[in-house]
Amino acid sequence: MAGDSARSWRSFAIILIVHLAVLVLWQVAVDAFHVPKFILPSPLATIQTLGTTGYAWGANTLVTAIEILGGFALGAFVGVALAVIFSWAPLLSLVLLPLFVTLNMIPKVALGPLFIVWFSYGIVPNILIAFSICFFPILLTTARGLREVEPDLLDLVKSLRGSRWTLFRKIQLPGSLPYVFSGMKVGAIMAVAGAIVGEFIASERGLGYLMIQVQSSLDTPAMVMAVVLLTLLGVALYGLVLALERMFVVGDARQT
Length: 256
Hints:
Blueprint: H1 2-33, H2 43-48, H3 57-88, H4 90-104, H5 108-119, H6 123-147, H7 151-159, H8 164-201, H9 207-215, H10 220-255
Helix pairs in contact: 3-4, 3-6, 3-8, 3-9, 3-10, 5-6, 5-8, 6-8, 8-9, 8-10, 9-10
């Protein structure tokens, strides 16, 4: 345990140092080559925009965070639930899974105007766009994890007259958790992209909306700051998934 903790802190320190080095190099390069602010602002110029009240950073960041988290949570729930249903009903999987594959090929940008017509402006259509982008990888990886259970274990439980629920709870679910979290990590990244796609198409609030507003005035520092905040939201969601994975997958592995 102590060795694992030390390795974790060492890895975190290395990651932090690398990121700080990139920021320092960015600042030095902008100052040394006198890069105009409207082309590439320095990190200091970017951070200074946080003190400007006209951008409403807090409110816009909160809106985007709700869209990302809402779309991701909905995608994770629907993706896992459908994967479980497909594992219990192979005929239903044969009928519906190819349809989901086809629907996933639709460019999500093309769905944006339709969502606005159906659900009007606001947070809800952006949540649905984020959901439509992130749920498919969760569905696929979870379905694969539920299929790739050792046949001997399944035969053993069936020979002991275990119910379908017992089979799922004791064998399929624990064995599929690494696949579930693998899909959720991909979904966390795609949920951020989905929320911003929705805000770019039509929105009245959010970081994507703010970027569109300041673009016309070449307010590059504000645009870069919005990108930084989006990145932090994505990192926070990805870190949450990693923490859950460590709790349910790594923790169970240590207990066994």
